[in-house]
């Protein structure tokens, strides 16, 4: 890729771990000429300015949109819809608007319905990265390095806007891939939202057990790893589950079909069927773990 | 605890990671005067002797039982039943017989039915420890340090036999707790066997997806951790699932009830119910993780 000598005025609407980390990465890469931000909590902006994450605070979304070329929405899932509509219906000087929400279909449909004139400059985005930590104080310029970012443009997306968002993420060290918006939501339902629901359901089920005390007294490291995601933020996951409702319900149903098949094999003492399913799952999972290790080591 | 100056002749029937590690730990602690072993695979015994894990190989289970005071069955789940009956029906010089199988009820009932005369010297045991590695070459004298061991004696168990097995595990650095055999199996179904089945079912479901390739291409570290146990040995887990069939089916049904409740909340867009379940699961899981961290640091 030929390096782009242009620097851009970048604005963040909502500034937590993801927005703050992206701001730091874009400053470090020399992609940002300036970074300004608006957040519903003014103390976040004070802290961010103090930490050098942003250059200035905007007093409103509208004011921010008047002075940026690229606007990034990086707020919690539930707050996304009204804010993206504000950003697009009064897009000011922005050449493109993007976001980092982990569910894309619902937001995309809201934009097409309620801000059709500016929908072309909206490039839906989702960085596949995160941390147990949250808040702008945890911002890390390296958070996206070697991570993947999915963009879900459609045939109406302005190529200039798309190109800019691709460059932005590349500058932050991420690998960018475009995908259909529905496939994105199915993918995330399968690999992230469903596992979270399963972990919450498992801990919930065990917490109801008459031998609950001994269960948690004797559970060991494997159980801790398997249930780690049940320690995730309940509000964030409530919002994600509802925003990706249809794809998540479909993924839950597919899962239950396979679980029911395993149940039948166990009930019928069908060792051959059980071993066959376990073996093919192990093969798939081993292959995935190998690929991921290669990816993490930078070979792929 | 007053230290016991006595050393014991110890025999292992089946010698893999668990048996080998226990043998090394008991030698190191000065609890074993000698360690002999029998295994269905003679090359395992050669390797173990070469590695200094055992002092001698027995040519049969019966020969082993003639020369030991404590006999430990440490073979795969499926092979346990005939071997424990051989050990008890011809118990030779053994004062006690114990095992390390991760399911206890089925084996216990087989012993009571088929070796009632020697059942009193059988002390069912289960060390809550393991490793991704397997085989005697991976044996580690420290494997059980600070880990828990559950024993499931009943009112007929010989107190001398029980006391010896307690001392044996204490010598290996483990914390020993006695428990009812049915509660043990419920406990393990909940904290270990059910999570394994869920991980296998999840990978199996995703492997059937039309977007399977992208699913595994984009899945990240959280998914890797959640599915790690789906890379476990399929034969071992087939045997465990069948041996602990009743408790596992009950645990699966409890889990499905809670999952179905979450499904209904998502389908009905009932954010309050969803958040409430996620929040209470997070509270329970956070508390468990804190307790486990204290335990691991040796404070509890």
Automatic annotation (TrEMBL), chains A, B:
PROSITE patterns: PDH_ADH. InterPro entries: 6-PGluconate_DH-like_C_sf, NAD(P)-bd_dom_sf, PDH_C, PDH_N, Preph/Arog_dehydrog, Prephen_DH. Residues 8-296 form the Prephenate/arogenate dehydrogenase domain. Keywords: Oxidoreductase. It comes from Congregibacter variabilis. Gene3D superfamilies: 6-phosphogluconate dehydrogenase C-terminal like domain (1.10.3660.10), NAD(P)-binding Rossmann-like Domain (3.40.50.720). This is Prephenate dehydrogenase/arogenate dehydrogenase family protein.
């Amino acid at each position: 890729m030929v390096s782009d000598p242009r620097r851009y005025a970048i604005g963040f609407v909502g500034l937590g771990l993801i927005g703050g980390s992206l701001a730091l990465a874009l400053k470090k890469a020399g992609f940002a000429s300036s970074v300004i931000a608006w957040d519903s909590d003014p103390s976040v902006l004070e802290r961010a300015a103090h930490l050098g994450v942003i250059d200035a605070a905007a007093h409103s979304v509208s004011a921010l949109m008047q002075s940026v070329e690229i606007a990034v929405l990086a707020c919690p899932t539930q707050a996304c819809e009204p804010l993206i509509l504000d950003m697009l219906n009064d897009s000011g000087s922005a050449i493109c608007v993007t976001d980092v929400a982990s569910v894309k279909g619902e937001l995309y449909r809201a934009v097409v319905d309620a801000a059709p004139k500016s929908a072309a400059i909206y490039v839906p985005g989702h960085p596949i990265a995160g941390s147990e930590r949250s808040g702008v104080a945890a911002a890390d310029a390296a958070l996206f390095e070697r991570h993947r970012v999915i963009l879900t443009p459609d045939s109406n997306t302005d190529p200039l806007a798309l190109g800019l968002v691709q460059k932005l993420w590349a500058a932050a060290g991420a690998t960018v891939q475009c995908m259909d918006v529905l496939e994105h939501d199915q993918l995330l339902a399968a690999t992230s939202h469903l596992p979270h629901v399963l972990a919450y359901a498992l801990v919930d089920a065990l917490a109801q057990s008459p031998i609950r005390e001994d269960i948690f007294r004797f559970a060991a490291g494997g159980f801790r790893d398997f249930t780690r995601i049940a320690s995730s933020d309940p509000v964030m996951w409530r919002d994600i589950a509802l925003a990706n409702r249809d794809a998540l319900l479909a993924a839950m149903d597919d899962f239950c079909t396979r679980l029911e098949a395993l149940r039948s094999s166990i009930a019928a003492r069908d060792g051959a069927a059980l071993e066959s399913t376990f073996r093919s799952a192990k093969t798939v999972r081993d292959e995935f773990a190998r690929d991921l290790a290669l990816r993490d080591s930078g070979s792929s």
